[in-house]
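dumping this here before i forget
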Amino acid sequence: MQAQPKVIATGDFLYFAPAGKAFTIPAAGNVSDAAKPDPTDTIWTTYALGTVKKPSVDKVTSKEAKIMAPMPGTGIIAARQIVRTEHELVMTVEMNEISRLALAGFYKSALIETGDTAFHPLGGPGSLMGWLKRQRYDATNGLYIVDDWWVDMNVTDIAVGDNNIINPKFEFTWLYSALAGSAI
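structure:
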């Protein structure tokens, strides 16, 4: 870990492991909030999302719940404080590449597998749940932060950007899993 704060020029690369898909490392299993593939499992490269056009900004929101003192005459005194009982973490990114996941998410189809030659719009769940692996690199191409989060993935746009390049936009809502975490 760095001893002093410093400026970091960053780049992000995203991988996705869809819920219900089989993996083999560290042991055979199916992707769920309680089962995460090892970083060396091929499922990550099978469903790679590619590079992020601009480094993403995570947005944390919390709901406040006011704790009120009891009604007079009850004989109980309570300190009044505000407790944040609900937290939500959302990440919105625009990608440099179009992927099978981007098409499936945008057109709300079932997952489009490597050998598929067609897909069916509106034939899937709408959003996809699974593990998102975000690898963040520094200016010298060194791995800086790795995030593994159980998410709900929604594709909000497939925009045509500069030089007629398609830049899909993803929104990831973090969901709770005891296996989620980040490493520096």
